[in-house]
Amino acid sequence: MPASTPSLLHRLLASPTLYHALRHGLLGGLPFKEWVTLYGLDDPNQRVADLGCGPADILRYVPTAHQPAAYLGIDFDVDYLARAEALATRLKLNATFVNIDLTKLSTDSATQQQLTGLLERERIDRVLLLGVIHHLDDASARSTLDLIFSVPSVKTVVTQDVAVVPGHGVNNFLAARDRGQFVRTELQYQELLASTRWPGRRVTWTRPGFRVAKYIHFTLTRDVL
Ligand SMILES: C[S@@+](CC[C@H](N)C(=O)[O-])C[C@H]1O[C@@H](n2cnc3c(N)ncnc32)[C@H](O)[C@@H]1O
Questions:
Q1: Which domains does the chain show, CATH number per domain?
Q2: Which of the chain's termini has less CB crowding within 10 Å, N or C?
Q3: Confidence of residue 19 (pLDDT cuts 50, 70, 90)
Q4: In the structure, which protein residues have their CB atom closer than 6 angstroms to any atom of ligand 1?
Q5: What digits encode the pLDDT tens for the residues 157-166?
């Protein structure tokens, strides 16, 4: 008998189809169009790496005429990667998908070289970490961000996470049931990101249609903002 049995909600969220439908339906629609612009996914000049891409649902909201020049999707879940790849093929996106476990980046030099090699080979300008940092402990998140910084072509990182927000009961109820084990407060995200090599940092908040939840985003840059 395992120490803790996954809840029904956690097991439902493990299905890519249900994950997308539940997130979108329960929250009254996620602000995908706003996110596409915030993440630079509608900029044909951008070569984008999406770390922890999952099934890459956001690609559905990228205008066909404004696709990024390249999209590199990385995840450690092969089912998600297969689904993301099928979607990218259907959308005729110039895309590559690779299986990497980001938690290995703090200790494993072969995985470090694999990630930096991919970012260099694909001449990536922008890295996205969408819904991912709250799945990573501080050491893994810091190693991932510092490795990305070591690749000169990458000018910008944009993140998205759920957060514990004082006084926002529904948001915090949902955050406590998130599959990520490292949901932080804004201050804790700020302190983590301040400990990385990225000097510039700007925070943005977005909300779904029902406005009961809040998403925190950081834009990290090589210049102080
Ligand atoms: C909340 S989902 C977000 C998926 C997608 N980025 C989105 O915004 O819809 C978190 C994603 O991070 C991936 N992930 C979590 N831990 C990871 C790790 N250690 N290495 C690689 N991917 C990871 C999960 O497989 C999942 O696809």
A1: 8-221 (3.40.50.150)
A2: N
A3: low
A4: 52-54, 57, 75-77, 80, 101-103, 130-132, 135
A5: 999 999 999 9
Token couple for 82: 């297969």
Instruction: For ligand 1, pick from 50, 62, 135 the residue to mutate: most ligand atoms within 8 Å of CB.
Output: 135
| End-to-end CA separation in angstroms for the chain | 51
Rounded CA separation 126/148 (Å): 10
pLDDT digits over 103-158, tens only?
999 999 999 999 999 999 999 999 999 999 999 999 999 999 999 999 999 999 99
pLDDT for 2 equals 45
What is the pTM (predicted TM-score) of this model? 0.93
Kindly give the distance from the C-alpha atom of residue 71 to the centroid of ligand 1, in angstroms, as a whole number: 16
Ligand 1, atom nearest to 160 Cα: 8
Q: What's the gap in Å between 181 CA and the centre of ligand 1?
A: 12
Tokens of 111: 């995985």
